[in-house]
Amino acid sequence: MTRPARRITSTDVARAAGVSRTTVSVVLNDAPGQSIPEETRRRVMEAAERLGYRPHAWARALRAGRSDVALLAVPDLPIGSSISRFIEELATALAAFNLTLVTHLEGAHGRSLPDVCASVGASAVIGFYPFDADTVQALRRAGATVVLPLPYEDSSMQQVGRMQAGHLISRGHRRIGYALTADAALRPMADDRLRGVAGACAQAGLEPPVALTVGLQVPEAAQAVRRWTEQSVTGVCAFNDDTAIAVLAGIHEQGLRSPTDLAVIGADDIPTAQVAIPPLTTVVFDLHEIARDHAESVVAGLSGTQPRSTPASFNPRVIQRAST
Amino acid sequence: MTRPARRITSTDVARAAGVSRTTVSVVLNDAPGQSIPEETRRRVMEAAERLGYRPHAWARALRAGRSDVALLAVPDLPIGSSISRFIEELATALAAFNLTLVTHLEGAHGRSLPDVCASVGASAVIGFYPFDADTVQALRRAGATVVLPLPYEDSSMQQVGRMQAGHLISRGHRRIGYALTADAALRPMADDRLRGVAGACAQAGLEPPVALTVGLQVPEAAQAVRRWTEQSVTGVCAFNDDTAIAVLAGIHEQGLRSPTDLAVIGADDIPTAQVAIPPLTTVVFDLHEIARDHAESVVAGLSGTQPRSTPASFNPRVIQRAST
DNA sequence: CTGAAAGCGCTAACAA
DNA sequence: TTGTTAGCGCTTTCAG
């Protein structure tokens, strides 16, 4: 298990190829302006290949002053499939620039973000929420040259809410409800989405949405449903699909039906949304573009270039199913 | 944005405290056997604190020959809340040993695991599935001294299946169905759980479970339900809660009821399980203990000690709700 | 009790 | 065209 297996260093390759370490370095890094005879080059490549040589990341980073590691700080909230897809997209986009993405789950008891940043020697740190000034400073001290909060909490989230409300309104609903999550960690995002809903209502000349908190418990959801129907709400925007599914359960519990008695629209399109009873209408958005956009910002930041300010096309849209 | 902000090195601290780099190192690392006068010690600490000094991880690792980074390779499967909770537990457990956990999502287009391992200079690599020999070798070459697949696919997973089947059998079901996931990435785990179910059936003298693949689509689930009822199956164990909820949808679609016509038991207790229609009986297990156990194996591996072979108490149990 | 020096593996100047 | 040297920041002998 613990076979030490001495690392293969550039010295080994040099010896095997009968050249100096420098030459190895030059060949393997394709150093510009250097002309190495094809024969030598081939010998070096072959030796490196045969020995399974890998440049030692720490040494390289130490020398270069920066690493190719980017760190994504994921908050301690339920990671939906949309987030994991986003991470993958981001990793792919960064890989195209020779950057390696690793993620850190920010838990209450784990290591602090700056610690992790220092440990892996990340050059860039990407977060889902704005970092406070102290954290930013700590991250810089820990070696990060780029600190980039995803603008996840701003208008993009509001757009989701606007889209949900717009959908209900376009289907004739005139009194809108909003189902807030009971999860405190998600609350800021929920508030943001709610603002979007409120905006759309105002714009359509409707009264503000009736916002209620809905936990993931049937009785609680049922009570919310009762209150909505009492106030003649006919359509509910839920913070996310989890909450939406709870609302559907509440409707069922009350012996009512969706969408006849109360229409429901969720957000995120989690896998079980399509097998909810009834299948859940929901809002999705493209993480692909936004990921690529952030990768570019990171690269721009690292190379000192100004990031181009073209905003990513977020492209939120409604997936129509039976619940509305 | 890109303020270079020269790093604070131990030289800076030494100068500020009026001592040598060695002394700084000795003080900050609590080097054993060295006795530093309290006064000097205090001066060093104070200077380090004031300057916000952080030892440079790369240099330290380069010198020491190993880093404090552990890398968790998460397969490209939907990260459910149970997995993310597990990651958090593992990170916490490792942090107790001064190890830093970061995770890498293995995507098709991203960087290869050995690449990531090399980039972050991980000393330990933990995976959800057994690595093939080539990968293991590549990881060793990349600097990992410990390569530890989580025994996630072995008996623990089978236990989950056994538990599910046991629950149904104890409630009088004599013909058991199994709902396999349609997600290829999850299939090995599903097969393992199925083996557990089959074992329990055999032990009870029942026929083998009727295994069908159930995707997250209502018509597909409905068809599976039809086939089960045709074969007089009365209780179904689902690979996980997502699949179980699809089965519930299929039952509903057929105009049947759970548990009267067909009982369903899931696994993992995802948030929406309790608001499924009807609320879903499911099997949960403690990730806490298993995470701690793995952290210990990693530490043991790194320090050359033999890992103690006490198996983690996995503690799977049934959460009884309305669907069985 | 403290400091000087060596060296981890790498690469960028500079010399040959 | 290739090799020699220096140094990134750290820790760890070994002298003083």
From TrEMBL, chains A, B:
Q: Where is the composition biased (Polar residues)?
A: 303-313
For this UniProt entry, the molecular function terms from Gene Ontology, in alphabetical order, are: DNA-binding transcription factor activity; transcription cis-regulatory region binding
Which residue intervals define the domain HTH lacI-type in the entry? 8-64
Which SUPFAM superfamilies does the record associate with it? lambda repressor-like DNA-binding domains (SSF47413), Periplasmic binding protein-like I (SSF53822)
Disordered, as annotated region: 301-324
Sorted alphabetically, the keyword list is: DNA-binding, Transcription, Transcription regulation
Name of the protein this chain belongs to: DNA-binding transcriptional regulator, LacI/PurR family
**Native source species:** Nonomuraea solani
